[in-house]
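Please check this.
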Amino acid sequence: MTGVLNLVSVGPGFEELIAPRAVAALKDSDVIVAYELYLRWVAPHIEGKEIHSPPLTQERERALLAIERARAGEKVALISSGDIGIYAMAALAFEEMREDDTFDVNVVPGITSANACASLLGSPCRTTSPPSACPTCCAPGSGSSTARATSPRPTWPA
């Protein structure tokens, strides 16, 4: 039996910003590996699953645990906030995989905190003039700038 490693992004912490593909990957997995906070965000989608939650600062251990379970033929979800491929767990997981690994890997993208904050503030990131300091991802000197919001701000829960 070939295992599956789902590298699942769960966004910035709002249920409505968890992509349907992430929910499907969580429901399809038998083993869930995540930092405890993220488990609260996805609780409705992981009921009855085997849960592993190594503490914060043990990211490599989480990745290794997920990989070992996938090598054993299980369907595993390794969860990360934001987008798992942007400064997150996917890089660690790929570093720890071996060339002879035979399990399937699915990378499920998500919404980064920077994107969510820019949208919430009504200050989308852009790379045209006039330059201004975006409080999320387009810091002064980064080569990016923002425009003033012209539409109402989203009303996500606090």
